[in-house]
Amino acid sequence: MEQFRCFGAPLTNQNSIHEEIKSRSKSGKACYHSLQNPLSSNFLSTSISIKIYRTLILTVVLYGCKAWSVTLREEHRLKVFENRVLRTIFLLKRDEVTGEWRRIHNGEVYNLHSSPNIIRVIKSRRTRWAGHVEGLWEMRGANKVLVGRPEGSNYLEDLRDGKY
């Protein structure tokens, strides 16, 4: 079998995380498009719109990100997605010199958005998860995989023999 879904995540025989990130981005885009009108509305403040983004859209995109090994290409795609949402929230800016409306540049978006960007959030969650797994008992399977010592013993047999 080349690909199947497990707990909503696509798994491939190549153990590629690309399909998982693609699926998460697609779900995030659907969530973003359903909330696009409220996010760009003048009735909501930007702080409320940012909270909506962080609690609804970002959680959909980053579900399961603790196990992702993100490449530069995927980092770029996630940053583009985040910029698109933040530009919707912050709308257009009026140039102070000419008085004309203009689009916000990436640097301005990140200056206006005080929270860490999507890549920093992923790295923070991965680090926190690694610390959690590292603290597990030494004989647990997740710890063995983290420190690179898979020994091939059968967990169920060891459990039955009272080793855990």
SS content category: mainly alpha
The helical percent reads 55-70%
Strand order of the largest sheet: 1-2
Number of helices: 7
List keywords for this structure.
single chain; 164 residues; mainly alpha; 2 domains; two-stranded antiparallel sheet; two-stranded antiparallel ribbon; 7 helices; 58% helix
Model description:
The chain is mainly alpha-helical. The protein folds into 2 domains: 3-91, no CATH class; 117-164, no CATH class. Helix content is 58%, strand content 7%. The chain has a two-stranded antiparallel sheet with strand order 1-2. A two-stranded antiparallel sheet has the order 3-4. The longest helix has 23 residues, at 18-40. 12% of the residues are buried.
Quick overview:
The protein has 164 residues and is mostly helical.
Topology:
Blueprint: E1 3-6, E2 9-12, H1 18-40, H2 46-61, H3 72-90, E3 93-94, E4 101-102, H4 106-112, H5 118-134, H6 141-147, H7 155-160
Antiparallel strand pairs: 1-2, 3-4
